[in-house]
Amino acid sequence: MDEYINTKMTANPLIVLREEFDDWAILFNPDTGDTYALNPLGVFIWKRLDGTQTVSEITEAIRTSAENVPDEVGKEVEDFLRDIVRLGLASGEKPSS
Amino acid sequence: MTLPLMKTPRSVDIEITNGCNLRCTYCSHFTSPGDVGKDLPLDEWRRFFAELKRAAVMNVTLSGGEPFYRKDLRDIIASIVENRMRFSILTNGTLIDPEIASFLAATGRCDSVQVSIDGATQATHDSFRGKGNFVRALNGIRTLQQFDVPVAVRVTIHRKNVHELDQIAHLLLEEMGLSSFSTNAASYMGLSRINVAETQLTVAERSLAMETLVRLAEEYPNRISATAGPLAEATTWAEMKEASREGRPPTQGGGFLTGCGGPFQNIAVRADGAYVPCSQLGQMVLGRINQDDLCDIWQNHKVLWEFRNRRLIPLSSFDFCKGCPYINYCTGNCPALAYNLTGEVNHPSPDACLRLFEQQGGRLPPAERLRDL
Ligand SMILES: C[S@@+](CC[C@H](N)C(=O)[O-])C[C@H]1O[C@@H](n2cnc3c(N)ncnc32)[C@H](O)[C@@H]1O
Ligand code: SF4
Ligand code: SF4
Questions:
Q1: Which tens digits make up the pLDDT trace of B315-324?
Q2: Whether domain A8-88 has CATH 3.40.50.1110
Q3: In terms of C-beta density within 10 A (0-12 exposed, 13-18 middle, 19 or more buried), how is residue B107 classed?
Q4: pLDDT tens digits for range A38-68
Q5: What does the pLDDT look like over B87-130, one tens digit per residue?
Q6: Is the CB of residue A28 less than 8 Å away from at least one CB of chain B?
Q7: Residue B27 to residue B264: CA distance in whole angstroms
Q8: Domain residues of chain A, as ranges?
Q9: Does pTM top 0.90 for this prediction?
Q10: Is A18 an 8 Å CB contact of chain B?
């Protein structure tokens, strides 16, 4: 678990982030034509997947960017990242030990 | 009532060339305001596609003219692909060879190549599309199929093929093995305005086209589609009649000029690089690619907003619609056709007027046959 929160995440450079209405967006994979809806939290996370920030740093950024962030946000971030990695939309680099 | 607007368009319709190897008798492009007599060089399109990437546009549809008539079409497509988009092409099918088909397949980004087929026989198709072009177009389809490029077919119905729809369905769905095809009728645009007597269906032929297409759509479930033309009209008009007979409350968007949702999703570009709301509204210039910012036009252009807000104009404000029993269920349909027929974009399209159709003796297929389509 600890290892996962120290993973640095990178968005797949092929994937297009399309911000559409308010803070909602879709991710578009031009190779397959698939689209995935992103809520505002997902958009916030996606914009930080530049390969320099770890999972826990992203969670921390969420906590400091808004008030009343629920305690479970860490788990939400992890679940979201696991999902998008599984879909090939991002990849993670584990910390070198 | 006003719809929310996306930050940028999802897709862009591009007339990639003004040129064409054919001159079809009913062609909506030639002599229309989109017939600009010149093309833009590759470099301009490349710069534009880079802007579409920044705007996160997902796909472009290339039309014209005839896209395969451009010698540098491969470079154009390569640039679309580089800029993370997918694409579709509308074509007469006559210039497709194995080389270009394999190139399209290799991109992995082609949503469809739509080939126009207007007859089941050489005589019918070629009557408006020119000698030899039926065989060429069918060969084009076969070549695309051979390379697993997704093929779509559009049948444009006119006076010479309206009696051949059964045979056309058989050719496309049985012999050519296509999963489906779409239909429209030659509408009053471009060369069709000059060749009215040859191209435009009479009311009786329109009724026949509806009857035949509804029967064929029953025979081939989910394999014949239409967003405009006789098959689409048969279904919407039957619903309007039923709603009127039963005195139902107005339908969603009914009673206003809501017939076109295009400007909330797409924008179009003429072959000379002018932005227009739709390829069929080539006179409504909003700006120029590589000079004016796409997002700015999309979000702020006054004319584009006026065009979107036509959906707030009630049909009751038109003398044309006074006393019509269908007014609460009617959406006024295509603004481009309205413009061509009345000179006004903000007018219901007389071509899509159910009351007029009935006054002129038009017959609809029975409503119960349309319910399951
Ligand atoms: C303008 S063409 C351009 C692409 C290509 N050159 C072709 O012929 O398919 C695009 C589609 O519009 C259809 N079309 C042309 N003129 C039309 C008209 N007056 N009314 C309705 N459809 C029309 C054509 O049959 C074709 O399917
Ligand atoms: S319909 Fe297509 S093929 Fe025919 S003249 Fe027009 S652009 Fe050319
Ligand atoms: S007159 Fe025609 S366009 Fe006007 S509401 Fe009736 S059916 Fe629609």
A1: 999 999 999 9
A2: no
A3: middle
A4: 999 999 999 999 999 999 999 999 999 988 8
A5: 999 999 999 999 999 999 999 999 999 999 999 999 999 999 99
A6: yes
A7: 26
A8: 8-88
A9: yes
A10: yes
Q: What is the pLDDT of residue B145?
A: 98
Predicted complex ipTM exceeds 0.85: yes
Cβ(B26) – ligand 1 distance below 6 Å: yes
Closest CA to B234 of B370, B86, B66: B370
Closest CA to B82 of B107, B105, B110: B107
Residue of B nearest to A21 (CA): B6
**First vs last Cα of chain A: how many Å apart?**
15
- Backbone φ, ψ for residue B352 (5° rounding): -105, 25
CB–CB of A72/A64 below 8 Å?
A: no
Do B84 and A20 lie within an 8 Å CB cutoff?
A: no
Q: Which of A30, B260, B19 is nearest to B268 (CA)?
A: B260
Query: What's the rounded Cα separation, in Å, for the pair A45 and A27?
Result: 12
Atom of ligand 3 nearest to the CA of B333: 3
Q: Which residues contact B339 (CB under 8 A, 6 or more apart)?
A: B281, B283, B345, B347
Specify the amino acid at residue A64: T
Band (B252; pLDDT cuts 50, 70, 90): very high
Q: How far apart are alpha carbons A48 and A46 in whole angstroms?
A: 5
Q: What is the CA radius of gyration of chain A?
A: 13
- pLDDT confidence of residue A66: 85
CA of B64, closest atom in ligand 2: 7
The alpha carbon torsion through B21, B25, B27, B30 (nearest 10 deg) reads: 70
Q: How far, in Å, is the centroid of ligand 3 from the Cα of B237?
A: 11
| Residue A55 and residue A69 in contact, taking contact as beta carbons nearer than 8 Å | no
Amino acid code (one letter) for B128: F
Radius of gyration of chain B (CA): 21
The mean pLDDT of B279-289, rounded to a whole number, is 98
- Tell me the C-alpha distance between B151 and B252, whole Å: 34
Chain B interface includes A19 (CB < 8 A): yes
Bridge partners of residue B187, in order along the sequence: none
Per-residue confidence (pLDDT) for residue B263, from 0 to 100: 95
